Amino acid sequence: MEAGIVGLPYVGKTALFNALAAGHAPAESQSGGVKPHVSIVPVPDPRLATINRFVETQKIVPASLRLVDVPGLAPGAGTAGKFLSHVRNVDALVHVVRCFEDPSVPHVKDTVDPARDCDHLETELILADLEQVEGMADKARRDARMGDKDAKLRLELVEAAVAALSDEKPLRTIMDQPPFNNPDARRLLRSIAMLTAKPVLFVANVAEDDPRGESKLVQKLRNKVGPDAIVIPVCAKLEAELAELPDEEREPMLKELGLSEPAIAVLARAAYQLLGLQSFYTAGPKEIKAWTIPQGATAPQAAGAIHSDFERGFIRVEVYSVADLEQHKTEQAIKTAGKMRVEGKNYIVHDSDICHFLFNV
Ligand SMILES: Nc1nc2c(ncn2[C@@H]2O[C@H](COP(=O)(O)OP(=O)(O)OP(=O)(O)O)[C@@H](O)[C@H]2O)c(=O)[nH]1
Ligand SMILES: [Mg+2]
User: Fold this and answer.
1) Cβ 106 under 6 angstroms from ligand 1
2) Of 334, 312, 316, 317, whose CA–CA distance to 325 is shortest?
């Protein structure tokens, strides 16, 4: 899973990136810089430790999230296209909005206004997409005239996208409407990597004295993006400091701030929810590992997340849940209790299933 961190300049994107990527190739805060920061961050998952209480293993492998931090998009600076090329292929955008006042930190405007800032960034994304699709329109028209079937659909999508974007509509708001609302269109749209078609998660970068995001500024952002959008308050500066602390000091400090877990845990969970993802596990003496799959995936599709051969050669899966393991403590006891299920290719894998796949290749 990949997420791109976007936002206006000086809103705290790099501070957030450093907090999330703590200990995994931290990046310099480099306002005005041009190179993206990239880090692969393990997704915190308490169920891995739960499984390990009952299954001895050599190594534990959490799911991972690839994070990309790009320089801020100054409205009208014309740099958007260049910076955004680094996030064209991510699965979701994390849009950081400044919700802290701090005169010592410059801002693109005199005042901090999350609603206005949000609009500014959305406009930059829309313009970047518009530039991209307008560049495609001529070629799509030529190809369509040559009778290429794929090109016809491409032209239809490109024209609909140009119309929506010119109307200042982000594509994600019209994905459930024709001509976008079918699998072929989705696939094509993914291949042309439209930024405004990507799911967005908002991070309200809050002040040190408002770690839970109770200020008017956060409320303003929530009102702006509407009740269906996910808004996560994070104090990037504090979280970056927290992330630097040794494990034993982090817990007490979190408590003191009234937070139950670090931002990366909250953010990763929200990203799974946003993208309709879930985890299943494989557990054995060599490794205990978390795998990420779409909700609703079948057993062969889940097997395919491990290896494409497993999907092709899928025979059946033996499956139990983390809760079964907590209750019965060993696989043998789970079997004896009749809780070890044997499922076929139509089985829909559940969040927190522990799977042994049987396959032939
Ligand atoms: N007071 C306060 N300052 C913050 C917070 N988050 C970031 N800052 C400060 O704001 C400044 C800019 O932060 P960055 O993380 O570099 O901002 P950015 O969005 O990456 O900026 P660009 O890369 O230039 O677009 C730094 O001096 C940070 O220490 C916060 O939550 N509170
Ligand atoms: Mg930065």
Assistant:
1) no
2) 334
User: What is the CATH class of 296-359?
Assistant: alpha beta
Q: Which atom of ligand 1 is nearest to 70's Cα? A: 23
> From the CA of 69, how far away is ligand 2's center (Å)?
7
- 2-47+63-106+198-272 belongs to which CATH class? alpha beta
Dihedral angle, C-alpha 25, 28, 29, 31, nearest 10 °: -120
Q: What is the mean pLDDT of residues 33-42?
A: 82
Which backbone phi and psi does 27 adopt, to 5 degrees? -105, 155
In this prediction the pTM is: 0.91
Q: For domain 125-196, give the CATH number.
A: 1.10.150
For the cut 60, the answer to whether the pLDDT of residue 65 exceeds it is yes
Q: What angle do CA 355, 359, 361 make, to 5 degrees?
A: 145
Residue 9 CA, closest ligand 1 atom number: 25
